[in-house]
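Subject: Protein entry, chain in single-letter code together with its fold tokens

Area: Proteins and the way their chains fold up in space.

Attached in line: The record itself begins immediately under this heading.
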Amino acid sequence: MTTLEIILLITSLLLLALYVTSKLGKDQSLNDVIKEVKQDLKNTAENVSDLVSKAKDIVFDESVQKTIKEFIMIVEEKNRLAKEKGEAYLVGDDKKLAVVSRLSEWVSNLTGSTEKAVTFVETNQSKIEAIIDDYISFSNKMQGRATLSAAEKIIQEQLKK
């Protein structure tokens, strides 16, 4: 054991001793103290479990929007490569479905639950589709223009990456 582990072990034991002695000071029998400590441990475990499950909930925020845009760029890049090779590529609703599928898989991996992923996508479906539509139409617009402003050139370079 390292010195740090020994110090942490001693500190933990001292804290446990203080905790148990604080329970003993209430004129209770040792059996009652043990029952109370067990109940405290059970409550603590339930609280930690609840916090962990809440921490796994995904909130539709800026990071999710950024992730959706990244998935759109991946799908667009795959389409571009497929077009160049003369292979089949996705259009319209198939593009949306590919992005939503990637998003669902991402949420499922984060939460550890396919059901939460489905619920998240269903709950935020209109927002997701709006982002996809806006981003794809903007991308299509950028590809069709010959002259671009400085800001549009930066955005187009980001789309190409």
